[in-house]
Amino acid sequence: MSDTIESRLSTAGVVLPEAAAPAANYVPYVVTGNLLQTSGQLPLEGGKVAVTGKLGGGVSLEDGQRAARLCAVNVLAQAKAAVGGDWSRVSRLLKLTVFVASAPEFVEQHKVANGASDFLVEILGDAGRHARSAVGVPALPMDAAVEIEALFELV
């Protein structure tokens, strides 16, 4: 699976960044048994939050989907770090939790989350099909538009 993931990333034009260091008192991921849980990942690009603000309050659906995709890229960077670069240890993506900074009237969090879900299925194939929650929140750290955490099964 590792060659497939790397080749799919290359085909998608994605170079995974170095896994982001925690911004506070937590670890970027935890491995216990055969589970890998990532901490929430922001839409970082070049070390900065690329999409800020609230969906329905100045941030378009398309920009929200781009933010979700960037979060997913950073989730994969954390997963790669957790398995020491050995993608063959990643059995499947079990669950995504997608937090969307939303104006009170915004109700399309699920469509924002598709930016991550579609990308992860593209890169991980069938092992990327996952359960998901998409939740609207009033604000996220550093005014990020989206934050995503993921749960993976390892072998």
Strand content: 25-35%
Number of domains: 1
CATH class annotation:
Alpha Beta
Mean pLDDT: 96
Any idea what the CATH architecture is? 2-Layer Sandwich
First-to-last CA distance: 12 Å
**Which shape, going by the Cα principal axes?**
globular
Low-confidence stretches: none
Helix/strand class: alpha+beta
> What percentage of residues falls in helices of 4 or more residues?
25-40%
In brief, what are we looking at here?
It comes from Aurantimonas aggregata. The protein has 155 residues and is α+β, with helices and mostly antiparallel strands.
Describe the 3D structure.
It is a single chain. By secondary structure, the chain is α+β, with helices and mostly antiparallel strands. The chain has one domain: RutC-like (60s Ribosomal Protein L30, Chain: A, 2-Layer Sandwich). The protein has helices at 2-11, 61-82, 109-124; strands at 29-32, 35-38, 44-45, 48-49, 90-101, 131-137, 146-154. A hairpin with a 2-residue loop joins strand 1 and strand 2 (35-38).
Summarize the SSE layout with pairings.
Layout: H1 2-11, E1 29-32, E2 35-38, E3 44-45, E4 48-49, H2 61-82, E5 90-101, H3 109-124, E6 131-137, E7 146-154
Parallel strand pairs: 5-6
Antiparallel strand pairs: 1-2, 2-7, 3-4, 5-7
Which features would summarize this protein structure in a list?
alpha+beta; 3 helices; five-stranded mixed beta sheet; 31% helix; 60s Ribosomal Protein L30, Chain: A; globular; two-stranded antiparallel sheet; 155 residues; 7 strands
